[in-house]
Amino acid sequence: MFIKSFGRSGLTLGSDRKMFPIHKCHQSKMMSKWKMFLFLLFVTGIAVFIRTYPRLSDGFQLQDVCACEKCLTEDNLLLHHGNTSVQPFLSMQYNLPEDVFNWWKRLQAEVRNFNTYKTAVARMFQMFPPSPDLIEQSPELCRSCAVVGNSGNLRRSHYGHLIDTHDVVIRMNGGRVEGFEKDVGTKTTHRVMYPESAIDLDDTSHLVLFPFKILDIEWLTGAFTTGFTGKSYMPVKTKIKANKYLVMVVNPAFMKYVHDQWLDNKGKYPSTGFMTFVLALHICDEVNVFGYGADTDGNWSHYWEKLKDKMLKTGVHSGHHEYDIIKQLAEKGKIQFFTGV
Ligand code: C5P
Question: Measured in angstroms, how far is the CA atom of residue 300 from the centroid of ligand 1?
Answer without folding.
Answer: 6
